[in-house]
Specification:
Shape of chain A: globular
Oligomer: heterodimer
Strand order of the largest sheet of chain A: 1-2
Mean pLDDT of chain A: 92
Distance between the termini of chain B: 31 Å
CATH architecture of the largest domain in chain B: 3-Layer(aba) Sandwich
CATH class of the largest domain in chain B: Alpha Beta
Helix content of chain A: over 70%
Radius of gyration of chain B: 18 Å
Structural class of chain A: mainly alpha
Number of domains of chain B: 2
Distance between the termini of chain A: 29 Å
Order of helices and strands of chain B: EEEHEEHEHHHEHEHEEHH
Mean pLDDT of chain B: 92
Number of helices of chain B: 9
CATH superfamily of the largest domain in chain B: P-loop containing nucleotide triphosphate hydrolases
Number of strands of chain B: 10
Low-confidence stretches of chain B: none
Helix content of chain B: 25-40%
Strand order of the largest sheet of chain B: 6-7-8-3-9-10
Amino acid sequence: MERIQAENKGSWFTQRWWLILLLILLCVAPVALSEFYLTVLCEALVMSMLALSFNLLFGYMGQLSFGQAAFYGLGGYTVAMLMTKAHFNFWLSLVAGVLLAAMVGAIVGYFCVRLRGIYFAVLTLAFGQLIFFIVFKWHNFTGGDDGIQGVFPPEYMKSPVIYYYFLLAVFLGSSYGLWRLVNSPFGQIVKGMRENDIRTEFLGINLARYQLIAFVFAAALAGLAGAVWVPFYRSVAPSYLTWIKSGEPVMAAILGGPSLFFGPVLGMFIMTFFHTWVLGFTVYWPVVMGAMILLIIFFLPGGILGYLQEKVKERKENAQRPRG
Amino acid sequence: MAFLETQDISRAFGKLWAVNRVSLDLRQGDIHAIIGPNGAGKSTYFNLITGYHRATTGKVFYKGKDITRLPAYERCNQGITRSFQITSIYPKLTVYESVLMALLVHRRVSLNFFSPAMKFFKDEVLRILEDIGLADQAHRQGDSISHGDKKRLELAVTVGTEPEILLLDEPTCGMSPEETDTTMSLIRKLCEERGITILFTEHDMAVVFGIAKRISVLHQGRLIADGTPQEVRESEDVQKVYLGGTA
């Protein structure tokens, strides 16, 4: 076994070359892209964080959350309200946004983790819509359907390029943190609960407790995504919390491949850029998106990245097979 | 003081008493078999001890402590682990990862959120896999190994929780005679070398009488005999049940 590990170590760069290439591309993107496309890239990064948070629950734990946007919206609203109404410091507002999303995640999660499958999905949907309606109807406090405008980042971060690098750093930092989480002992238990919850319970795991912890992590990451997005976009609206928004990470995960860490990120990048491109000649984006999802489900059921991984595996196996 | 004790334990499903006032002591270090015809209540009795089902009446004591109301995971943390009649493994995890899971839980590092899981307990996992005879399959996925190996994988996973009592629900079900022999000597080895107390159910009477130090017989939810293999063999009630009469 040590030999296998040594081989893996030796080929770290050959295995991860694509990751390094992507990092370089992301770092030089502001030079190559127009301001418009840089904005689209920023949106893709933020939405990818939302997709990653969703996939912690879906791909790793095996539970379909249909209310992830509620935490995204809560993070955004917390930052917007603290900065415009209480004139809070930008950084403290971000922390508050993450904490509030995590706290609400703990309350919502407390009820949801007792359920499995479709019941879990429907309850997260119900809680998500509940939070949406509170924000939407409470006009005096949240601005109702007007949302909140005029949320500005600090002076030194107003340039889109600088804010882009900030978003990139947050995206990379949270991806790395999540990567460590899913490969940690806790992550191993989370995968075990997806594979066989009864067996895991009979190893001595309190299923509800572990699912709740994962749920809170996911809510916090979604909250962080919302919190960093709003100052860039300068405003927040109730549409951030709707179930339609919650559907985006679901589709991104299916498109990219939920069984791989970066699957949902790829899905979200494709969706965001494709969306922008399609809007150039038609407003019927949902039709295009629906057709795309149909094609994926029928022809690439493991998602795009899942399909690629399968192909690479096949090629490796063929290469290893003795000839003759 | 009995190691594990059930006092008048019963479980009803609607009007059917699947287990009916069963009182039984389990001594530390024993290999104890529960036998009985289909539907005798063996699996339900297992479920009552491990917390899969709640008892309708009666109590379960473990090392003198009442554990009747403890949830399943808590009983497992105290040293009572089980396997299932229908093999219960992790289909998409490797054999190595599956055993690792058990050790991560039992050695209380499962709330570590940052260190790579694969760095933990390498020697312990490999030792268990070697003891069980799965070392050469360590990197294969759970659903890609043979039926007999799956059964043994589940055994390896339960051993990973370092139990004091291991309840095995038909550990050789569906195995070939050779596999059955290796598994049973493995179980004896676990009992002798790791000091694990074993409670198991089994259909194959040759296996039961070959390995068990004590045998209890259930019939229609009731305990009709309990003693050494010799005593059970000579019991009239048992002969009636197994020769087709009704007790």
